[in-house]
Amino acid sequence: VQLVESGGGMAQPGGSLRLSCTTSGFTFSTYIMSWYRQAPGKERDLVATISRNGEAANYADSVKGRFTISRDNAKNTVYLQMNSLKPEDTAVYYCNTYPRLMYWGQGTQVTVSS
User: Fold this and answer.
1) Beta-carbon neighbour count of residue 112 at 10 Å?
2) Measuring CA to CA, which residue among 31, 70, 30, 62 is closest to residue 46?
3) pLDDT digits (tens, 9 = 90+) for 57-71
4) pLDDT at 27
5) Which of 14, 50, 51, 64 could lock onto 56 through a cystine, CB 3.0 to 4.6 A?
6) What is the mean pLDDT of each run of 10 residues along the chain (114 residues)?
7) What is the pLDDT of residue 46?
8) 58-88 burial, b for 16+ CB within 10 Å, e for fewer?
9) In what order do the strands lie in the sheet with 57-59?
């Protein structure tokens, strides 16, 4: 099983980033998928969750209306479009199943700063 996150980087407040998580080693389309994040000195938190067919999604209150989770089952990939970024979005972002069943990947660092 592999979870490989990418797309992070630096952004200014109000900016956008699109994260990708490419997976392998399991039947991606049969799992609910989620994005999580861990800010420095804090616990890892759930950010967004998407249903197996991609038709339903849920978001943490802190990102609702700004972030959009999506998936492509043909590519075994889940995405996180992040708009209107805030400094408090700074964290390492990870994807995993929901509930978490796989080992964590390396994550991708997102830094929001002016």
Assistant:
1) 19
2) 62
3) 999 999 999 999 999
4) 96
5) 51
6) 97 98 97 97 97 97 98 98 98 96 95 97
7) 97
8) ebeeebeeebbbebeeeebbbbbebeebeee
9) 9-11, 108-112, 91-97, 33-38, 44-50, 57-59
Distance CA 1, CA 17 (A): 26
For tokens 């339903």, name the residue. Answer: 56
Q: Is residue 101 helix, strand or coil?
A: coil
Average pLDDT value for the chain: 97
Tell me the one-letter amino acid at 61: D
For residues 90 and 39, the answer to whether their CB atoms sit within 8 Å is yes
Amino acid symbol at 79: Y
